[in-house]
Amino acid sequence: MRKALLGCAILVAAVVVPQWVYSHCQVPCGIYDDYARIERMREDATTVGKAITEINALAGKTDAKSANQLARWVVNKESHAENIIGTIANYYLTQRVKPDASDYAKRLQAHHAVMIAAMKAKQDANPATVSALTGAIEAIAAYYPKHDH
To answer: In the chain, what are the domains?
Structure first.
C-alpha cells in the first residue's frame, strides 16, 4: 500500500509541479550569452546527479519522511532535466543551430544527444545517465566558449 501511495505521490508531484524553462526570448534583441546557458545546464546536470544519489540512498526506506524526501528528489530531478531539454529546444535549436551552417547535421545531432541524455536521466536513477548527460553537454560546450563582455 505504501509503495502504491508513494508512486501516486511521485506521479502527482511530477504532473502538478510547474516546469519552468529559463530561456532567453526569441526576439532578435542581440543580447545572448550562450556560455551562461552552458553553465546553467552544467548546474542542472549536477543537480540531477545529486538527486539520483539521494533517490538511491532513500530507496527502500518506508518511513513517511523518507517517502516525502524521495518524492521531492524525484520532482527535483525531473525539473532540472526538463530545464536542460527546454534550453536546448527553446534556445539553442531555435536560435543558435543554423540550418545553413556547413556543420549543421553534426551540431543538430550533438544538441539532440543532450536532449536524449536528459530524457534518459529523467527516466532512470542510474548514475551512468548523469555521466552521459554531462558528456553530451560538454560535447556542445565547445561551440559556445566563454567570452569576456
So the answer is: 2-141 (1.20.120.400)
* Nearby residues of 148 by Cβ (< 8 Å), 6 or more positions away: none
- The average pLDDT across 112-140 equals 98
Buried b (16+ CB within 10 A) or exposed e, 51-62: bbebbeebeeee
Amino acid sitting at position 7: G
Residue 106 to residue 123: CA distance in whole angstroms: 26
Residues 6+ apart with CB under 8 A from 101: 107
Q: Residue 81: in which H helix or E strand, if any?
A: helix 64-87
pLDDT tens-digit readout, 61-106: 999 999 999 999 999 999 999 999 999 999 999 999 999 999 999 9
Task: Give the SS3 label for residue 1.
Answer: coil
- Residue 10 pLDDT greater than 80, yes or no: no
Contact 76, 52 (CB under 8 A): no
